[in-house]
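Box 3.1 A note on notation
Throughout this textbook, protein chains are presented in two layers. The first layer is the amino acid sequence; the second is a token string describing backbone geometry. Keep the layers aligned when reading.
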Amino acid sequence: MNIPGQDKILLDGLAKQDSIAIESLYRLNFQMVQNLILNNKGNSEDAADIFQEAMIVLYEKSIHPDFILHCQIKTYLYSVCRRLWLKKLEKQKRIVIHTNEFDQVISVEEDLEKHEITTSNFKIMENALSKVGEPCKGILEAFYINKKQMQEIATLFKYTNADNAKTQKYKCLTRLKKLFFAEYKNL
């Protein structure tokens, strides 16, 4: 098999039904598959089912000595899960698509790359948000995550009125952007 070292170890472990390798495969790949399913008309239970089916497919392939994996395990699992999910959606009549058109609909590498970029950006933003300090972190979370109105934020953070809270939110957002882009440029 011509694959990266860690992937080879995990694939060999899967073939031997090694629990550590199996747990590692779940830990490294399930979130990616769950995001795919949740963003495409599914729920967490669907994601678990589809991922389990893909793991069975990968296991069955891994026990054959002539199996050659030509990509990373995450790319393979993502591709299998995507196909399984699209078939399930078609079967449930939630979408109408012909199976032979899957590759034309979604390019696995492009979709996976976008997912990895988005995940990376979220980590950078999470890090920047942790560095912005209080009360900025609280104000930004209240407005953008908890969808609170400016008057409510003014009351929570003891500003005299909504306009003062809005001005502070703007200053906090400016600081957050500076922190985010400073780290983003260093990638």
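Residues 97-106 have pLDDT under 50 and may be disordered. The two ends are 31 Å apart (CA to CA).
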